[in-house]
Amino acid sequence: MQEAQTYAALLRRRRDDLLDELAGIEATLRRLEQGRFGVCECCGQAISRDRLMQFPATSWCSACKRDYEQRRGIHHTDDAT
Ligand SMILES: [Zn+2]
């Protein structure tokens, strides 16, 4: 059935997204334990408290994230990478 393949593809993509998110959360917890939480991995500046409250698993400050997205031509900022 064609539809089953479509749903399977959607479910796999969703699963992969969640696994990526989980890996990001695990990495952030490790940074927290090592005292490196809240520091941008790109520029080394402190990530703002507002951003950390909104995206606690982020490893980039909003400026680096924005630069990255502009370079890649991405125009949304709603994920936490
Ligand atoms: Zn940065």
UniProtKB/TrEMBL annotation:
Keywords (A to Z) from UniProt: Coiled coil, Metal-binding, Zinc, Zinc-finger
Source species, domain of life: Bacteria
PANTHER family found in the cross-reference section: RNA POLYMERASE-BINDING TRANSCRIPTION FACTOR DKSA-RELATED
InterPro entries: Znf_DskA_TraR (IPR000962), Znf_DskA_TraR_CS (IPR020458)
Zinc finger (dksA C4-type): 40-64
Designated name of the protein: Zinc finger DksA/TraR C4-type domain-containing protein
GO molecular function, one term: zinc ion binding
Stretches of the chain forming a coiled coil according to its record: 1-35
Organism in which the protein naturally occurs: Duganella radicis
UniProt domain Zinc finger DksA/TraR C4-type: residue ranges: 35-70
Keyword Coiled coil: yes
